Amino acid sequence: MSAASANPRTGGEVVEVAVGVVYDGAGRILLAQRAAHLHQGGGWEFPGGKLERGETPAMALARELREELGIQVGEVLPLMEIPHRYPERTVRLHVFEVRTFSGEATGLEGQGLDWVDPRDLPRYRLPAADRGIVQAVNLPDLMLITGAFPDESDFAARLHSALARGIRLVQLRAPELDEEAFARLAALAHEACRGAGARLVLNCPVPWFGRLEADGLHLSSARLMALAERPVEPDRLLGASCHDAAQLAQAARVGVDYALLSPVHATASHPEAAPLGWEAFARLVREVPFPVYALGGLTRSDLLLARRHGARGIAAIRGLWDAP
Hints:
Elements: E1 4-6, E2 13-22, E3 29-33, E4 44-45, E5 48-50, H1 57-69, E6 72-73, E7 76-85, E8 90-98, E9 101-102, E10 113-116, H2 131-137, E11 142-145, H3 152-164, E12 169-173, H4 179-196, E13 199-203, H5 206-209, E14 216-219, H6 221-225, E15 237-242, H7 245-254, E16 258-261, H8 277-285, E17 292-295, H9 303-308, E18 313-316, H10 318-321
Parallel strand pairs: 2-8, 11-12, 11-18, 12-13, 13-14, 14-15, 15-16, 16-17, 17-18
Antiparallel strand pairs: 1-2, 2-5, 3-4, 3-10, 6-9, 7-8
Helix pairs in contact: 3-4
């Protein structure tokens, strides 16, 4: 018998599902094809299945991958939870990364299998609930937010140092600059990030973004709350800074690809902001369908703790911009 929980908003039943993002040694992700007679038959999905009574999500994942694919899971790390309402049912996906396993993945139920580069996942017909997984696996663990700098030379040196340390997602934030000065910095950052294979998102007014080169736009919470629709094309990243449930809900309505939720801890830059703490952070992120970075007084050493509380990763200014 499968396990289900109550939906506090509708009072209906929520189907609890364990989902595995299974990687091979080349960094490809395993997809399984749904049988034609099933719900959304013929499409593709990340392997997994419903929790049975008394199972934890991790237990259900191990059982499902053994029964469906004939593999024994090894290293497993929580990726995210995704609540999703289909017309006919409500589901909650408990998503895990499976970095190591033993055995050879085989479609034991007759399902087709395909190993896919994460960047190619949007080409496959996946369930609507899986959109957040596709977003998450194409984002790195760390986001650098640029901080203070005395001049453009120092900015360039700090950015190149961070990229050399492995940073692959940069948010250019410089609220003190006018449009012309911001554009110069954006051009410098775009060239540096492109050379390192990193992505650059710009924290700036929407009209500025349309005149600049970058991989995406990052919205302040004020800009987020003023929007009625997504302001950039689907092939550009869209992120937002959020501080509470209302802002996260607005981010979902606008259709962001990721969000930052802060502050987890007290910070020197915003001493007036009451910290969320990890438990409140975890409660908030489990109700949204997109990946969320934890922000506020964090460093690289907090990454595993953040992942265990539902974060895709951590974002930081001081902890990454000023790091040696």
